[in-house]
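Re: duplicated header lines in exported structure tokens

Our pipeline writes sequence and tokens for each protein into one text file. With two proteins the header for the second block appears twice in some exports. Here is an export where it did not happen, for reference. First protein block:
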Amino acid sequence: MKKVIIVGAGISGMTAGIVLQNSGFETEIYEKNPVPGGEMTGWKRDGIYIDNCIDYLMCSKEGSAMHDLWCEIGMLGKDVKLCPKDPFFTYKGHGGEITFWRDKERTKKEMLALSPDDKDAIEKFFENVKRAESMIMPLDKPMDKMGPRDFMKLGDFAKNVPAAQKAYKGVSVKDLGESFKSPVLRSAVQMTHPETTQAYSFIMSYAMCTSGSGDIPEGGSLAAANRIANRYKELGGKLHLNAPVKNVKIEGKLASGVVLEDGTEVKADYVICASDANHTFSSLLPRSYMPKKLQKPFNDRDHFSVFSKFHAAYVIDGKVGIPADSSYWESKGLTLWGKEIKDVGVICYDYDNTITPEGKTIVHMKLFQYEDDINKWLEISEDREKYEAKKAELAQAMMELIVEQYPEAAGKIRLLDTWSPITYMKRFNAYKGAYMAFVADKNTKTITTPGVVKGLKNVFLAGQWLMGSGGLPPATAQGKYAAWRICKKEKVQCK
């Protein structure tokens, strides 16, 4: 039985471990943190759960290969209740309101009533939302190993999704917003995705909701991570927590295993690096091994960027009229790093009573942070006192915006926790504090990097940084792809 060591117990690493255990390999996962899941996690403050990751789970509807893989690894299953993602979100501002419902015909009708002058832009938008509902994640084999016949098997996906992408080629989320004459629609479509993201990202995300494939597993991200970890251990996998890896030990063109931070050497026949890409090629492996495709976004910052968020979580005594799930509004605004932010919003966790204490309301407010903002966080974090003061100042300003919108919350709301791009850097080794991967600008083709390391025959890569702008489905897929490559080398069936 061949042994595989996996560095990182995020969803990608654990998926690789589960598939390899099912395929007859001996595996061990080494994770630096005290809990599994990587960025798919949550924690408690004052006994109240705070979620970090899953706002909606793409491909949660039965009938796709990704749904089957979600069930195989324990993300979903018969015992996992799904909270319906309806609506996708609501926006109020500029004297109007629009809700992006699961029922896209209802949304379309409301948009046309709100802004008849935008009829052509609205018709185009929904035509391509319908196309994007065909989105699936190919999982039989890595995409670089797929041939014409494999793509022909993808059916509507191969026909519709490229057409939707082409319809908005060279268009960013900001451009998409500005294509509408209505200021309500203009602001609304820019709320859920960074403005530099390609417009198709927003269209695809909404299409997951309209197709019924964007629901949320009850219990939150940490519960999902624990289910996956338990599935891995039930299959005989060994999960080592609080066990950071120092580096992969290389002997010629092979890795002999890994060296832990405490100096312990662990032997293996294969190694999968399932951690942040920058960390992989600055700590685990020499930079010279980084694949050229992966080097490109690191070196070309004019066309590839990263983003993060500043988060604040609050608890409110009682119910004060905040709708469940995601809602946004035009506010009096706040200023961060010299930029005025007027459109803000919250996620209210009332949709999941397993994580919302009775008689309480739990809300998170999040602000997008781009690379120049992240650099400001990096600079201020060098002085701990200034860093903590900045977080507290910002959290107070955000709380005031919530009370402005929901006056009944006054005197009943208090801060639970804040976390910033620096949190992602320290806890998850995330490059620039990015919780997703590189974003290609509107005129640049998204890059998918094969998870192989040239010059090392038995080291493979997994993780969201290898595919597009990242996220849970790409991260999970890359975990399976890494397992597939090892199975292929050993000439065994990948299960």
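Second protein block, exported in the same file:
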Amino acid sequence: MRHKTLLAQGGTVHYWVGGKENADDCIVFTHGVTADHTMFEKQVDCFSANYTIILWDVPMHGLSRPYQRFSYRDTAEILHGILQSEGIERAFFVGMSMGGYPSQHFARMYPNSVKGFVALDTTPLGPGYYSKADLWWLKLAAPMARCLPAAVLRRSMARSVAMSKYAYEKMAAMLKPLSKAEIIGQMRVAYEGFARENKDVAFSFPVLILVGEKDSTGKVRAYCREWAKQTGYPLRFIKRAKHFANGDNPEQVNQEIETFITETVRREKKHDAAL
């Protein structure tokens, strides 16, 4: 993977480009809160032979820190800048947990640049999905984390999202370089920003919802069921997986993504041929 940077309003954003050069399709992976781009290493191994791959460290995460004035609108504009820098007009987007929000904001702002979206253990944009109580509890996540010692906080976070040894160790490794203040800061901007910038969206491109069958993070599974019910988007449960489903069961996640992309491309080609 080639390591590159993009200068944004709040700081320097780091991203990586690799996989097949001049591939027909590109996949952009966006990680979750307190994580970084390395959480997709099992997906890079799988898709690099046939696709262009873009990974990035979301502002305030990984190497993209420090960063000032975080917002999801900003992350969408950064994604647009990365695609422009790489000469990519359209791509598939995979957003894991918090990573689903930059992806959805990007899709709202630049719908013609999206071929399809895979919502991986994330939740939908749209105020109608969330009660006032839901948003109140969301804002309490960061303050509650302050009550735990740093080492206990890291362990509890890794255990809560991972079922497999690999996923636990990967999450623990991503958390290790972060101070307790940084972890809390990332949680705060992610959750408060979500509530503040949550908007209704309507997507014309294909969407696939994936969620770990044992995902116990908040009400993610319930939100995903309602999301699928209201939109008709297909919902697939990942077996033997918690919130970090692409680490717990990368084989099923990768197969679901591959099938989704293949079917989307086939339908698009069929549609173009009929015109």
